[in-house]
Each structure stands twice: as C-alpha cells, then as structure tokens.
Amino acid sequence: MSRVDELIEELCPDGVPYMALGEVAAYSKTRISASAIDGETFVGVDNLRSNQGGRTSSDYAPITGNLTEYLEGDVLVGNIRPYLKKVWLAANRGGCSGDVLAVRVNESYRTALLPAFLYRILSSEAFFAYDTQHAKGGKMPRGNKSMIMRYRVPVPPIDVQREIVCVLDLFTELEAELEAELEAELDARLLQYAHYRDSLLSFRDAGAVRWIPMGELGEFIRGRRFTKRDVVEEGIPAIHYGEIYTRYGAVTRSVATHLQPELAAGLRYAKHGDVVIVDVGETVEDVGKAVAWLGEGNIAIHDHSFAFRHSENPAYLSYYMQTAAFQHKKAKYVARTKVKTLSMPGIAKIRIPVPSLEEQARIVAILDKLDALVNDLSIGLPAELAARRKQYEYYRDRLLTFDEAVA
To answer: Helices 125-133 & 357-399, crossing angle to 10 degrees?
Structure first.
C-alpha cells in the first residue's frame, strides 16, 4: 500500500468532498500597469507551454494599458484553444493578457486547498476534456469562464494533497530526466549519421567525379500558390513548402496533403524523380531543403518551392543537398531578410559532384540503410518517451480521482 493510500484510508475512508471551482477559487480581477511588466513577468497564451511545460520568457512586453495581475501560487490557464493544455503554477508576480486566466485559491480556503494541488487538478485530462467540451467558438475556441468555475474539484485532506503533489513532482522530474537522456541519445546518433554521410559525399579526389552547376544538370519549375482553404481529405496529392522541413526526409513516396480537384488546371506539378526544393524559411538552414519525390504520379507543389527535373538519381541529389558542403555553398545565395529566401538563379550556380549512375546508386543504398537506422531510432525513442508519459498520465489521473463523500 502506498503512502497516499494509507493517508486516504486514515483520513478520508468514506470519500472526499467535491466542490465547484468557483466555491474555492476565483479569477484575479486586479489590474497591473503594463509599465511594471517585462519579458520575465508577462504571461500570454503564446509563452505558456503545453502539458505542464511551464512558460518561456516573452519577447513581447506591453508598453501601455493594464493587464490582469497574477501572484505567486496562482494557476494560470491558457484560455484560447483549451485542447493545447497550457497551464502554469505561477512562480512570481506579474501580469497576464486577456487570453490567460489567473485562478487564485480563495483566502478562506488557503488552509484547505494547496495551490500546487489545484494546479495538478487543472492540468488533468479530465479538466481539459471538460474545458474543451464547453469552449465557445469554432476556428479559435475559448474556454467558457463561467463553466470553468462550475468544474467540480476534489478537496481531500491537506496531508493527502501534499503527498500527491510530492509524488507527481517526482514523476515530473523523472520524466524530464528520461526525455533529456533520450534526446541526447538521438542527437548523438544524428551527428554520427551526418558525419558519415558528409564523408561519403565529400569526393576529396576532385578528379574522380564531374562537378556540374545545377542549372546545367537540370531545370527548375516553380510551383503555384495554394492555401489552407484549398486542402481537403481526398483530392490532388500535394506537398506544401512548410512540410519539406517539418515532415519529410530525403525521400518520400507518399504525401500528407491533398487539394480540391477543381484546382487541377491552375497548379504546377512535380513528376516522379523530381527533387522538390523549398526556397523560403525562417533560417538559412531551412532554405534549400529538398525531398526527392519517388511516389507514383504527379504531385502539386507550392510556389515557395520548385521541382528540380534532371536525369540523375533523385535520392542521391537529395542526400547531397543535406551535406554541410552544400549548405555552405547555398548560404551565399540566401537573401537574409526577415524571411530567408533562395533564388533559382542562385541555386542554379551551385556546382555539385556527379559520379556515375552506378556510383550514385551505391551511395544511395548505403545512406538509405543509415537513414532507416536513424529513423527507426527517431521513431523508437519518442515512442519510449510517449509510453512513459502515458504511464505518468495514468498514475496522475488515478491519484487525482477520489470517491465522493456522501453528504
């Protein structure tokens, strides 16, 4: 029997009272001048992290007007898109925007309800399900403030609350340690892979291969614009430029996006074997990222990307475009404005090594195996982490579920 079970059996064997949140807590209504707030004390929905991830410092500090004051120990709940699960137990005093609710335990209940315990209750799956169910609005749903205050909160004896908080704090610490270890392991394997890939594609003996400008090796075909409104469940297969540096690796045989069929005549397409290259991004590293299309048929591409059509091994070209050598060459053709861009005339000047097709196939076979190993690790480690998180959520929900005392 755990210490929590022992305390429940001793202190509340017949269950615990459940009370509406509005009976034990209230929203902060105190205003604080924005001039007293900085990036460390301002909390908006954008710098609250999901899943008990805490908060980050904000780049944005309001200059005029007033904000809602929060105090250390208040539970701050993101009130836009409740399903994002943004909740933080405030560790300082500051101001929050209207998109964040500061929930404070009432003075009369300070000896009966720990803020840290209430934070755990408002971080539970049960609360998020309730909050999402009662949210208002479709595209940008907001939590229903009055319904939130009707949420029924268990109020076990204070010693039970304190023990549960200690157990969950330990779970959180162990989860964070595991996540750090798994991420470090994955980072190490990715570095090893990148080093071997770059060595294999370095061609230090310059005479062993031809070095040809990409503009002479093939042609570039720019895509045509489409928007989120054009996306449907089934339709024209497409790659959105943002997916090239978030979803795809060096090669893909399937797509995640489909467009309305009536757009067909106004789109441009990549063919089997084309390398799709993104020409815009937030960082220099993102710009010029490529994916070889090896699936069946044609796919629509966005106008912030272009298809490179050629007669070489498409996977070989895509792998080479991942190397540090290519990144270095590419960098001087990237326009460093607020949004980084790469022009077709610029990338056309980049000279790349072109061995025989047989040698390209040999290199691709090696890199495919290494890429599969890394991807298996990428899948395996997050899966391990997800399993631990589910385990944590299971025990958390069990610890926060009580028999209700009969009045």
So the answer is: 90
- pTM flag (> 0.70): no
Of 30-44, 52-66, 186-200, the range with the lowest mean pLDDT is: 52-66
Cα within 13 Å of Cα(403), Cβ side: 11
In angstroms, rounded to a whole number, what is the distance separating the alpha carbons of residues 386 and 396? Answer: 15
Q: Residue 8 has which token pair?
A: 């429940």
Contact 198, 325 (CB under 8 A): yes
Selection from 172, 122, 167 nearest residue 21 by Cα: 122
104-144 per-position pLDDT tens digit: 999 999 999 999 999 999 999 899 999 999 998 866 789 99
CB 30 within 8 A of CB 68: yes
Q: Round to whole Å and give the CA distance between 240 and 122.
A: 37
Radius of gyration of the chain (CA): 27
Which residues does residue 210 pair with via DSSP β-bridges, in sequence order? 354
Edge-to-edge strand list for the sheet holding 218-222 = 218-222, 305-310, 275-278, 290-293, 251-252
CA distance to 68, 114, 122, 389, per residue, from 28 (Å): 7, 17, 16, 32
Alpha-carbon span 103 to 283, nearest angstrom: 38
Burial class from Cβ neighbours inside 10 Å (0-12, 13-18, 19+) for residue 371 reads buried
